[in-house]
């Protein structure tokens, strides 16, 4: 039996507004419990919500970026249920009339193909608080700092067909919301949370199978593993004659399994109705156009531009446009050095290694884009060789100044004078006369390795400063005799 | 007509305290058509015994009328109480089922109104939402707000342990 | 002193005939002596009242002259008063010391009023008789074996018995107008959105409106002037300039077009109440008004629509009462579900639990369209009826209630019977139009009120009409015997 996997994802992005969606409390992460919980956030008797304009703006930005229909008259609705981290006994969300309607996002798969994933809708809602289950002598502690933080819930169509596609989609959303400056995408802190709806069906069947929802999977790796496990579980269940139940499950990374959430009862009746304390949000055309003007160049457009204008490969263009900061850095390096390919290589190579090693974001790079660009210029004008450049790079990373300053101070200028190289080579060959004889006596195949020996000696003698290309040419000539 | 007699009866039962004076003795009979449906329900409400109600209904030719009451079963009431997290005991459920059915019967009268092509009105004045600027205006008031909390420790509100 | 109206007090304080502190002490003594018979107060804030009175006297000594400076009032116990118990007449909030002031409370405090305490009410504003309060029923000063109306029953009884000259109230289905009618007071529910709901503990959000009960229209105008206004903390608050209600009291009524809905006057309405209503019409005609018959064809459907919408919104608004962050918590909850179920079952009274259940049901899956949406459609029909009527007339007049005050205990266990008593008042809440009830006579010694309804934001007109009527008649000056000393 051939099986097909069908996946739909619900991503909750915490919007990076300064204050909460319905109250003027701060949204800063990590504060002492309940120190950022106002009367409104606590659901005190008599309080009323007022909508944060920036949350609306951010949602519209997202909608425009995914080419979606914008709900210019959208309505907040109450989702009623009881849970201690939900102080009012209802969550203010959006039901029938969300702020963002149908849109799409194109994702690039591992093999380079592009797939369009439909987005059903995105709506605004408030986040709940946090429950802490550590020991309070058999009690649970509730922290409502997070209650009221604005969320944008992004619902995809069930267009995803594999765990890898799912990860690509989440990564694309992650990049997009960071690009737009509406969410910091920090999955560790819960800024971006993912619920995966997974089902399987026999290949060729039109109807969807029953789906299970895996809630709150919070890293790209876990998303892939959780989905893979769940798909396997469902297939085995069905092949054993069982039926998949529509239920909520949790992924346990320690056991690499999903398990059913015991405490969640059968379908909760949320009794949605428009929140009578809030009025319909009307988005005028002027607000829409104003917001459109605030959109940055989006990842897709940037990638295409990098390919087109700089001749980069799709792979390189994708990596370099993955985040706005990375793209901006790269473009600056390209601008200073005038060489996109070298810039791409250095950013994706040495620089990325450095950042990874030191666990730094590109915005905190010890090597500035200007400096890197300047260094590349010196490679291009042959002042230094590629090899020397690595030394220069390290020195720049250590804060020793610009490329020119370092080259000057350390005397790293490349030797390009033919005469000087010739005479140096002459000395090297003279010092290794036996090897020269051996070389001349050997055939092509054996010569290759021996040649390397002479190159090495030449580099040592010149302290690496001889231009490698010239060394190669001249050495060959000399050895030929 | 049977309903007039019923109405007089109901009017008498429903007579409020005009110092013991019932409507029937007034120069006018309580026959406001707009009050009829409600008064009929007063009949059901005031007479606790369903059997008697059915009898008088039959007598007055109102049999099918009462049969149309929206009937909540005990299990419905239990479900609703659970959704609303109201702990009802045996006696409560009994009482509540009856009263709720009376109220729902009152509400059911809405179904007779034709509302085709009528848009729901959620807010009387149909205004639109005002948006506020994204500014932090609240300060930490935890101590003040937690003085009235039933159970607090280390700044957290305590509840019986929640199992996930 | 206690017989003075708010306006008279204002003038007397201005003329320094007595101080706010003196007046406050007199009233506090009266309350202590008289209120045990009425049970209109839940909390008397003696110390704070004297503080406030002294502060008002101080402000006056420094040259301030506001009309309400030093004026004594009391608040319905539904308005949050910082540092003072705010109970909503419920065991659920018996221990709730409000951590903030409602906008209404703050505005009146800024104007210099002295608040004598918190007034009794039907639990969470659900009721028309003030019999459902955790703190016991309130009695009507006109006949203490009878109810004063509700849910602002404490406000009505306290003002009628001259314990305070005026009080704040709230009106969701008639809860200011009906008790005003049953206790010979003038009560105003302004246009929805005119008065801020911040700190006004919610029952039914799209219907609730704050207002006041007083002995006459002028007093109501004094309070409305201070209470009305846009509040950015309330999304449903309307940004509309506040009229000068006092200035417009004196406008002559010549040319006023009054509409009498034929549906109000079905053949069977108690003829004596009908008579008094028509008498009031005659008085207004003498003052220059014309009358015509109009129709509000969907009026009868208002009650079922209201009893879907209000409980539905309430069922959600009251979910926050869960024993977690404030309010009543049951003893030794076994687990979370037990905490919720017992705290709520024990904290809420019968009527509240009933309405929560009805509301929960009306919103539940499968019933939302047939109940909630249907009710909202009827709501639009009712609003349309008013809009059409106001094309032909300036105000609508009718009886406020179909009966006079009934005996305590009479409609117990008969919620539907009590619901029907709202028949005249409920439409104004559904449509959001302003409504006022004013005294129009007596039936067997019990007060009868007539109600005026006007288009949006014309509460000034309502006060104007009532004021002119009250200059030509004296029903509103009558006080219940037994409460005059």
Characterise the protein shown here.
Chain C: Keywords: ATP-binding, Ligase, Nucleotide-binding, Protein biosynthesis, Transferase. Chain C: This is Glutamyl-tRNA(Gln) amidotransferase subunit A. The complex is a heterotrimer of chains A (481), B (164) and C (485). Chain A has helices spanning 53-65, 163-179, 220-239, 285-294, 299-310, 314-320, 324-337, 340-357, 369-380, 386-397, 403-410, 418-431, 433-441, 444-461, 468-480; strands spanning 3-14, 51-52, 73-74, 76-80, 90-94, 103-108, 114-126, 130-136, 139-143, 150-156, 192-202, 212-217, 248-252, 257-260, 273-274, 281-282. Chain A has 481 residues and is α+β, with helices and mostly antiparallel strands. Chain A has three domains: 3-287, no CATH class; 297-410, no CATH class; 418-480, Arc Repressor Mutant, subunit A (Orthogonal Bundle), CATH 1.10.10. In chain A, the strands form four sheets. Chain A has an eight-stranded mixed sheet. Chain A has a three-stranded antiparallel sheet with strand order 5-4-15, with no helix packed on it. Chain A has a two-stranded antiparallel ribbon with strand order 3-16. In chain A, helix 5 (299-310) packs across helix 6 and helix 14 (444-461) packs across helix 15. The radius of gyration of chain A is 30 Å and the shape is elongated. Chain B has helices spanning 2-14, 36-46, 50-59, 63-67, 74-83, 90-107, 142-146, and strands at residues 131-132, 152-153, 156-160. Chain B has 164 residues and is mostly helical. Among the domains of chain B are: 28-65, no CATH class; 69-112, Orthogonal Bundle (Histone, subunit A). Chain B is flat, with a radius of gyration of 25 Å. In chain B, strand 2 and strand 3 (156-160) form a beta hairpin. Chain B has a two-stranded antiparallel sheet with strand order 2-3. Chain C has helices at 6-14, 20-38, 46-61, 103-110, 153-160, 177-182, 217-227, 271-286, 302-317, 336-347, 350-363, 369-392, 415-420, 426-431, 459-472, and strands spanning 41-44, 72-76, 114-119, 166-171, 186-189, 209-214, 257-261, 290-294, 395-399, 435-443, 446-453. The model of chain C has no long low-confidence stretch (mean pLDDT 95). In chain C, strand 7, helix 8 (271-286) and strand 8 form a beta-alpha-beta unit. Chain C has 15 helices and eleven strands. Chain C is α/β, with parallel strands linked by helices and 485 residues long. Chain C has a domain at 6-256 and 435-483: Amidase signature (AS) domain (Amidase signature (AS) enzymes), CATH 3.90.1300.10. The interface between B and C is large, with 76 and 96 residues.
């Amino acid at each position: 039996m051939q099986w097909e996997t069908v996946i739909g994802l619900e991503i909750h992005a915490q919007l990076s507004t300064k204050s909460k969606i319905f109250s003027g409390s701060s949204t800063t992460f990590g504060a002492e419990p309940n120190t950022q919980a106002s009367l409104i956030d606590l659901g005190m008797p008599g309080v009323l919500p007022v909508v944060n304009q920036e949350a609306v703006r951010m949602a519209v930005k997202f909608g425009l970026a995914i080419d979606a229909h914008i709900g210019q008259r959208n309505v907040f609705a109450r989702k009623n249920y009881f849970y201690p981290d939900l102080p009012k006994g209802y969550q203010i969300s959006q039901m029938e009339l969300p702020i963002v309607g149908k849109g799409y996002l194109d994702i690039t798969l591992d093999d380079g193909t592009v797939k369009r994933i439909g987005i059903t809708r995105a709506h605004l809602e408030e986040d709940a608080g946090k429950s802490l289950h550590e020991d309070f002598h058999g009690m649970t502690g509730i922290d409502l700092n997070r209650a009221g933080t604005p969320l944008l819930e992004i619902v995809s169509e069930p267009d995803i067909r594999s765990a890898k596609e799912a990860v690509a989609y989440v990564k694309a959303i992650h990049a997009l919301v960071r690009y737009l400056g509406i969410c910091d995408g920090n999955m560790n802190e819960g800024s971006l949370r993912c619920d995966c709806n997974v089902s399987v069906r026999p290949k060729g069947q039109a109807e969807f199978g029953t789906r299970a929802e895996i809630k709150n999977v919070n890293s790209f790796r876990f998303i892939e593993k959780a989905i893979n496990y769940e798909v396997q579980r469902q297939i085995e269940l069905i092949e054993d004659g069982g039926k998949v139940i529509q239920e909520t499950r949790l992924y346990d990374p320690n056991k690499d399994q999903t398990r059913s959430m015991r405490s969640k009862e059968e379908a909760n009746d949320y009794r949605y109705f428009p929140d009578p304390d809030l009025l319909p949000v009307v988005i005028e055309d002027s607000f829409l156009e104003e917001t459109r003007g605030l959109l940055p160049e989006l990842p897709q457009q940037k990638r295409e531009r990098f390919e087109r204008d700089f001749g980069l490969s799709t792979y390189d263009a994708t990596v370099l446009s993955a985040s706005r900061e990375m793209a901006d850095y790269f473009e600056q390096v390209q601008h200073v050095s005038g060489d996109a390919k070298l810039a791409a290589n250095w950013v994706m190579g040495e620089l990325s290694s450095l950042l990874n090693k030191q666990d730094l974001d590109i915005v905190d790079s010890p090597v500035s884009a200007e400096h890197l660009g300047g260094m590349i210029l010196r490679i291009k004008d042959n002042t230094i060789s590629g090899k020397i450049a690595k030394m220069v790079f390290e020195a720049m990373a250590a804060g020793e100044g610009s490329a020119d300053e370092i080259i000057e101070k350390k005397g790293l200028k490349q030797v390009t004078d033919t005469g000087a190289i010739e005479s140096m080579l002459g000395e090297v060959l003279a010092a290794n006369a036996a090897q020269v004889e051996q070389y001349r006596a050997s055939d092509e195949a054996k010569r290759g390795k021996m040649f390397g020996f002479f190159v090495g000696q030449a580099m040592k003698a010149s302290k690496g400063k001889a231009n490698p290309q010239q060394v190669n040419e001249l050495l060959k000539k000399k050895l030929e005799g | 007509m049977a309903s007039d007699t019923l109405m007089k009866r109901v009017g008498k039962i429903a007579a409020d305290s005009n110092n013991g004076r019932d409507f029937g003795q007034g120069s006018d009979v309580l026959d406001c058509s707009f009050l009829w449906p409600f008064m009929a329900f007063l009949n059901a409400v005031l007479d606790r015994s369903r059997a008697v109600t059915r009898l008088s209904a039959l007598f007055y030719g109102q049999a099918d009328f009462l049969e149309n009451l929206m009937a909540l079963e005990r299990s419905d009431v239990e479900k609703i109480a659970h959704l609303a997290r109201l702990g009802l005991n045996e006696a409560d459920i009994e009482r509540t089922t009856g009263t709720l059915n009376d109220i729902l019967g009152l509400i059911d009268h809405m179904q007779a109104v034709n509302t085709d092509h009528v848009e729901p009105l959620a807010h009387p004045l149909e205004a639109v939402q005002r948006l506020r600027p994204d500014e932090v205006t609240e300060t930490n008031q935890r101590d003040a707000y937690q003085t009235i909390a039933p159970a607090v420790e280390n700044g957290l509100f305590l509840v019986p342990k929640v199992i996930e | 002193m206690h017989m003075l109206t708010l306006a008279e007090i204002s003038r007397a304080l201005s003329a320094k005939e007595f101080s706010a502190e003196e007046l406050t002490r007199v009233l506090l003594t009266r309350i202590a002596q008289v209120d045990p018979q009425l049970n209109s107060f839940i909390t008397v804030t003696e110390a704070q009242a004297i503080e406030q009175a002294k502060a008002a006297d101080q402000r006056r000594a420094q040259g301030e002259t506001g009309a309400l400076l030093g004026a004594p009032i009391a608040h319905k116990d539904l308005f949050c008063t910082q540092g003072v118990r705010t109970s909503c007449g419920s065991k659920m909030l018996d221990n709730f010391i409000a951590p903030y002031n409602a906008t209404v409370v703050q505005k009146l405090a800024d104007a210099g009023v002295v608040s004598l305490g918190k007034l009794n009410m039907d639990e969470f504003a659900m009721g028309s008789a003030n019999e459902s309060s955790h703190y016991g029923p309130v009695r009507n000063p006109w006949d203490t074996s009878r109810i004063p109306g509700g849910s602002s029953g404490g406000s009505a009884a306290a003002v009628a018995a001259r314990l305070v000259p005026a009080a704040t109230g709230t009106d969701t289905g008639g809860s200011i107008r009906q008790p005003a009618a049953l206790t010979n007071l003038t009560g105003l529910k302004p246009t929805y959105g005119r008065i801020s709901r911040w700190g006004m503990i919610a029952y039914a959000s799209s219907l609730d409106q704050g207002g006041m009960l007083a002995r006459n229209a002028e007093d109501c105008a004094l309070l409305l002037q201070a209470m009305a206004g846009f509040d950015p903390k309330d999304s449903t608050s309307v940004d509309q300039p506040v009229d000068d209600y006092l200035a417009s009291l004196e406008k002559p009524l010549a040319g006023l077009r009054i509409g009498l809905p034929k549906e109000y006057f079905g053949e069977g309405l108690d003829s004596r109440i009908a008579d008094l209503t028509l008498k009031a019409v005659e008085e207004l005609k003498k003052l220059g008004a014309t009358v015509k018959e109009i129709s509000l064809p969907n009026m009868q459907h208002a009650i079922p629509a209201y009893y879907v919408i209000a409980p539905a919104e309430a069922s959600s608004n009251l979910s926050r009462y869960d024993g977690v962050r404030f309010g009543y918590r049951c003893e030794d909850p076994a687990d979370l579900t037990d905490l919720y179920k017992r705290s709520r079952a024990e904290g809420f009274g019968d009527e509240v639990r009933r309405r929560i259940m009805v509301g929960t049901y009306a919103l539940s899956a499968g019933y939302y369209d047939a109940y909630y949406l249907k009710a909202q459609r009827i709501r639009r029909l009712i609003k349309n009826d008013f809009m059409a009527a106001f094309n032909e007339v300036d105000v609508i007049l009718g009886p406020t209630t179909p009966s006079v005050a009934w005996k305590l205990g009479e409609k117990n266990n008969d919620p539907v019977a009590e619901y029907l008593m709202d028949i005249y008042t409920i439409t104004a809440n559904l449509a959001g139009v302003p409504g006022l009830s004013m005294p129009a006579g007596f039936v067997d010694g019990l007060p009868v009120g007539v109600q005026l309804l006007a288009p949006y934001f014309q509460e000034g007109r309502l006060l104007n009409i009532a004021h002119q009527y009250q200059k030509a008649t004296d029903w509103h000056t009558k006080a219940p015997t037994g409460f005059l000393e």
